[in-house]
């Protein structure tokens, strides 16, 4: 997506006007229209409802403008529908500033064409914005969201652990970051046994690995971002049904979010010592696959009974969380497509937020509201930890009874977090099951912009130059 050509500063270029009409202001807008325009509005039965539109012709057929229904305060996706409805060209909003909706304008041009033999070229609709708009920041944010979409949309055949490693290295190279990878049996020597156990059944060339990226000055606050990188999840020996397996290429969506957020941090040159940890595995099946009933000793030393091989995400994350804590970070954030239970509770569009710090949670929710990227906080309800008890090990990786699946998964992760370290966990879907304006069906960043708004606010007062 060529985002630099989609937003320009308004210096008086020729452009068609877009009028945004809120239903509450429709009558006043109607009264100011010339007779020719009123006829078009009546014919289209346009009343300013969100998502509706009308073309208003001037004195000749080439002289036209457009009116779209939109709320008084624009949210990120309120202009996205206009992109598909208008021909290529330049446009400016009449008497309005796009605000947050400029991002949706850019992202509405996104297409995923990697596997199309003859992809249709994207014809740019260019939005003119005031000089006060930071176009570079918009492009970086749109690029981060598009990166998540690209990585999640890529089939597992071409997005295994090795390809995810390469994607991290591409981003790192752009920003001068360092990347170290621990692969295969070296994970055991490095005391990362749960990552090894989940991924050890994968085919040659797709061995499990821990991707560890570092950037920034050592004396700055330590920000650690972790992403679940299960590049395909068969369910292991507790195999999924074919229907449940169909979308499991997206089970590395947490890693995609984590990498995109890391890229935003580096692109903005925030004064942090950034660490990105991605345990990248394929949960496959062969004779070496880990089994229900196995006991695995984690990096922390906690022993885990495997109640379900399909609860593998928390296994790869727990060693990464323990490793992160050994570095005494200022803040730990993790992203994961962790539980179907979160989707049952909140649906596909609303990620579940868990945090061990109330102030952190409140500020993330504030950032979510300000960025138009919603989150919903779920409780770390301590009594439910009893559901993770094991008769023969310290803990079970799968809760008994089937209740509160998102909460018990988060409680499992919390056991591997230093309670003195502020930590937030996002259980996100990373997918749009149906297309919406600006958001095609497929991979999607859900919660990324909220977390970025918080991180930028927390660390943005000082930037590396």
From TrEMBL:
**Looking at the record's lineage, which domain of life comes first?**
Bacteria
**Which InterPro entries does this chain map to?**
Leucine_aapep/pepB (IPR011356), Macro_dom-like (IPR043472), Peptidase_M17_C (IPR000819), Peptidase_M17_N_1 (IPR048816)
GO MF annotation terms: manganese ion binding; metalloaminopeptidase activity
Please tell me whether the keyword Manganese is annotated for this protein: yes
Instruction: Tell me one GO biological process term.
Output: proteolysis
Residue ranges annotated for the Cytosol aminopeptidase domain, each copy included: 308-315
Sorted alphabetically, the keyword list is: Aminopeptidase, Hydrolase, Manganese, Protease
What Enzyme Commission number does this protein have?
3.4.11.1
* Cellular compartments per GO CC: cytoplasm
Q: Does the keyword Transmembrane helix apply?
A: no
Gene3D superfamilies, alphabetically? Answer: Leucine Aminopeptidase, subunit E, domain 1, Zn peptidases
Instruction: Identify its protein family.
Output: Belongs to the peptidase M17 family.
Its name, as the record gives it, is Leucyl aminopeptidase
């Amino acid at each position: 997506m060529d985002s630099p050509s989609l937003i320009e500063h308004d210096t008086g270029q020729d452009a068609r006007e877009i009028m945004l009409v809120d239903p509450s202001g429709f009558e006043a807008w109607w009264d100011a229209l010339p007779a020719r325009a009123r006829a078009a509005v009546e014919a289209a039965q346009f009343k300013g409802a969100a998502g509706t539109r009308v073309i208003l012709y001037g004195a000749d057929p080439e002289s036209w403008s457009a009116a779209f229904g939109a709320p008084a305060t624009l949210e990120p996706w309120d202009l996205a529908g206009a992109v598909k409805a208008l021909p290529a060209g330049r446009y400016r909003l009449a008497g309005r500033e796009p605000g947050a909706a400029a991002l949706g304008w850019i992202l509405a041009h996104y297409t995923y064409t990697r596997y199309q033999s003859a992809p249709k070229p994207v014809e740019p609709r260019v939005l003119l914005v005031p000089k006060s708009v930071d176009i570079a920041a918009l492009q970086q944010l749109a690029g981060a969201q598009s990166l998540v979409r690209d990585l999640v949309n890529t089939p597992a055949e071409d997005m295994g652990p090795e390809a995810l490693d390469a994607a991290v290295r591409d981003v790192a190279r752009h920003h001068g970051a360092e990347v170290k990878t621990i692969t295969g049996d070296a994970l055991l020597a490095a005391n990362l046994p749960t990552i090894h156990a989940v991924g050890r059944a994968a085919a040659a060339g797709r061995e499990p690995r821990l991707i560890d990226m570092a950037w920034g000055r050592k004396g700055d606050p330590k920000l650690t971002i972790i992403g679940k990188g299960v590049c395909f999840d068969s369910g292991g020996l507790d195999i999924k049904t074919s229907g449940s397996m169909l979308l499991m290429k997206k089970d590395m969506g947490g890693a995609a979010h984590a990498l995109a957020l890391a890229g935003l941090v580096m692109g903005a040159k925030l004064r942090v010592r950034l660490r990105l940890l991605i345990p990248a595995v394929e949960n496959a099946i062969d004779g070496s696959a880990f089994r229900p009933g196995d006991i695995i000793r984690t990096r922390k030393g906690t022993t885990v009974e495997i109640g379900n091989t399909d609860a593998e995400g928390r296994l790869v994350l727990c060693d990464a969380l323990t490793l992160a804590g050994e570095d005494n970070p200022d803040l730990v954030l993790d992203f994961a497509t962790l539980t179907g239970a979160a989707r049952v509770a909140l649906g596909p569009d609303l990620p579940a937020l868990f945090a061990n710090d109330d102030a952190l949670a409140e500020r993330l929710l504030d950032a979510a509201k300000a960025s138009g990227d919603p989150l919903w906080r779920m409780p770390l309800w301590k009594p439910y930890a009893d559901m993770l008890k094991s008769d023969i090990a310290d803990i079970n990786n799968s809760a008994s009874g089937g209740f509160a699946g998102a909460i018990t998964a988060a409680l499992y992760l919390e056991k591997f977090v230093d309670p003195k370290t502020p930590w937030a966990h996002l259980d996100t879907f990373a997918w749009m099951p149906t297309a919406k304006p600006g958001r095609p069906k497929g991979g999607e960043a859900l919660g990324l912009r909220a977390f970025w708004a918080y991180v930028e606010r927390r660390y943005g007062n000082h930037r590396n130059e």
